[in-house]
Structures are given as structure tokens and as C-alpha cells.
Amino acid sequence: MKFSTLPLPMAWEAFGPKNGSSTFKEFDKRIRGYASGTGATLEIGCNVITQPFFFERKYWIPVPNWPKSVMQGKTYDTDAEDGAWLWNEVQQRIQMAEIQNLLGEPQAEYAAGPRFGEPFLTQQRLGQGAFRVLVGEAYTKRCAITGESTFPVLEAAHILPYEMEGPHRVSNGMLLRSDFHKLFDAGLISVTPDLRVRVSASIKENWHNGKAYYRLHDQPLAVIPEQLSERPDPEYLRWHLQERFVG
Q1: Do 142 and 212 touch, CB atoms closer than 8 A?
Q2: Can you list the positions of beta strands (E) in 159-237?
Q3: Does 130 share its domain with 226?
Q4: Is 54 among the domain residues?
Q5: Which domain holds residue 142?
Q6: What confidence category does residue 37 fall into, taking pLDDT thresholds of 50, 70 and 90?
Q7: pTM to 2 decimal places
Q8: How many other C-beta atoms are found inside a 10 Å radius of the C-beta of residue 92?
Q9: Judging by beta carbons within 10 Å of its beta carbon (0-12, 13-18, 19+), is residue 118 exposed, middle or buried?
């Protein structure tokens, strides 16, 4: 699980009605009803579950002692009675799923498997909203190329486009300022596997400009995720250089 704080408009942009309201106006009103301040810009904490899996409905587990008024921070400790019981129930159902898979029933869908279907036990992929939040946290809410930290103008860019089977995975993303995102998608800017910026000569040839971009040519990324697993995958970067970058 990852946690991030977002301004209300960005939380709505990322998750929409999944925030628990049917419209942004309703969402904004509800949050301001909880907030103690009266400022124009409010932020909300977002918990993003990165590797959820789901049981078929008939195997759902009744949740013990969960107050309806819970707003945040509710967990179960496996050293306590309720937590130990719940963890045991989860383990039993996972074992049941594995046994039934061996008998030929639908198998679990993992990250490398097909994107759609009705598996018995499925591991959910990140949605676009969660992708943006997690990429933003990986890059400490700063543009990978420039270090810009004005978060509303920063966007989560896919290296291998999603429509070309690129996954909503942090290692397939970079947080970029919106103009760099557009140039990256157009193949006018790229990043090498050793994390150096490449700027296409086509910017100057076609638009007789681009000084603000060319000064960054061959410079290392300004921001690199601390965790190795969240850094841009060299294979995705190699694909972008070879197949998308116009050089």
C-alpha cells in the first residue's frame, strides 16, 4: 500500500466517483465539511492498494468488529484474536484456490497474464488514477527531467504506451511536466537506459526554437526514484528510443 496527499481536484481527476461521491461538487462539499480550515485549496490523503486480489463472492469473509464510523487507520494485528482468525481464513481460501486450479478450474491471473477474463482468484492491475499517484510518489512529486515541483502541471507518462500493452506499472512511467510529457509522447524527447535525456533535432528544424529543451540534452535525470523497482525499466526506455524517438 502507498499513501499520498493530493489537492481535491487532482484526487477527483485520479479517482472520480471512486472517491465516494457522484460529482466533484458533492465530493468537495463533503470534504470541506470534515476540514477545520477554510482555505481554497484542500488536500486529501489517498491510500493506494498496489497489489489487491479478490475472491469469488461465495468465498468472501465476514469482517469482524469493523465500526461503521471508521475513517482511517483501521488494521488487524495477526497477534490478536480477530487478526489471527482473519488471516487464517484468507490462507484457507488461497489454498482452496490453488487446489481447484490443480483440478483444472480457472487459474489466478497475475501481472504477465491476459488482461481480461473471469479468474477464480485475480490480482488487480493498477488503474490510471492509482498509476499517477504512485508515479508521483516515486518521483517525490517532481518532474523527472527538470525537477519542477508544481504538482498540478506534472503528469504520469507511460514509456511504453498503455494502448500498446504497456502496463500501469511504476517502472513503465515517469513523472513529467506537461510540456515534456507531450514531447515525450511525440518522440521529440526520450531518455536513455542509463537515464540521460535526449532531445530531438526536429524541434529546432520544424519550429526554429527549443532552447529551453536543448539545454537539457544529454543531462542526467533530475529526479530518480530511490527504490530500484520503481526506476524506469531499461527495456521500456530502449523501446522508446528505438521505436518512438525521432532523433
Answers
A1: no
A2: 173-177, 189-191, 197-199
A3: yes
A4: no
A5: 126-244
A6: low
A7: 0.64
A8: 12
A9: exposed
